[in-house]
Amino acid sequence: MLASVDMKNAKYATSIQALEPRLQAIVDLEDMVVELLRAFVDKTMKKPERILFYRDRVLQGQFVQVHRDEVAFIRPACKKLYATYVSKITPSSKATSTPAQCNVLCNENRFHVGQFLETGRHTVLLCARCTRSVFMVPAAF
Fold first, then answer.
1. What residue numbers bound the domain in which 130 lies?
2. What distance in Å separates the CA atoms of residue 134 and residue 4, rounded to the nearest whole number?
3. CB-based burial label for 64 (10 Å; 0-12, 13-18, 19+)
4. Is the Cα torsion angle 9, 12, 59, 107 positive or negative in sign?
5. Which of 39, 57, 112, 141 could bond 13 through an S-S bridge, CB–CB 3.0 to 4.6 Å?
6. PANTHER family under this entry (predicted)?
7. CATH code for the domain in which residue 102 is found
8. How many domains are there within the chain?
9. What's this model's pTM, rounded to 2 decimal places?
């Protein structure tokens, strides 16, 4: 998992976990989110007001499971960092590597779908070291 740790979305921190074979669920997601939130706060001296959670390679029939088992851990992670901390969350899952094809699982930030996709495209277009189009967040590439 990786997260932006600056306001310009140019520097990233990572949290790595080995997954069990054939298991798509991220088991220690809450601890990973806490680690990345701390990295953001350490760099910016602010708590993120909004969290955009992009989840890649989710099978069509597993969107509900991802929302239930993974997205549900983001809010407790915020509370673990600061007891009164509440951030607006907009998670999405993609079954393909094309950023235009995603399913928004909940939308507390009240993004229009076009705004959400545009944000994803801008993040992808920040990748300057590629000689062709890349449909992946630059830091993960």
1. 2-140
2. 18
3. exposed
4. negative
5. 39
6. EUKARYOTIC TRANSLATION INITIATION FACTOR 2C
7. 3.30.420.10
8. 1
9. 0.79
